[in-house]
Amino acid sequence: MAETKQTKMVLKKKKWYPVIAPKVFREEKIGEINLIDPAAAIGRKVKISLMQITGEPKTQNTRVEFIITGQHEGKLTTEIIGYELNNTAMKRMIRRGRTKLQDSIVLETADSKKIRIKPVVTTRNNITSATKKELRKRMLNYVKEQTAKNKFENIIKDLTQKKFQRAGIDILKKLCPIHSFDMSKAGLAKSK
How far apart are CA 114 and CA 107, in angstroms? Predict the structure, then answer.
């Protein structure tokens, strides 16, 4: 009778590693990942509701995207790569009798990062095509100005705190009554 060799299986135990937000969000814990080796998590993307970071219910329609960049003292560090509004928030902006204008442009920030930003503006009532053209022009000029003079992290911080949007409304409402102005998406542009 032939002898069989028995092999030992070595099982590695997984551990929970906390995921930490960048300094813009006060290095709050945004989640945990169960891993054998924390180096395996580098490059993973994490998308969470802004309400989980700030604790404010009115920010629940906004998602922020992070990428895990490294490990420090048993914690996974992240960098912010995007901002996005939920579809329900976008649908709530537009109603019958309103005009919605949106665009998608790639711009360069002050720290030389290429970002894709998608501004959306809705008016309180229907407007003429000449007013639409001028409103779109003013909206794009404002977005280009702000991205050219700010760093990427500051742009996302201003978007999450609604400073970017409030300043934009102040400029756009001089032309016609504005219901809302926001960014449906803003994030690092994918290189081809």
Answer: 6
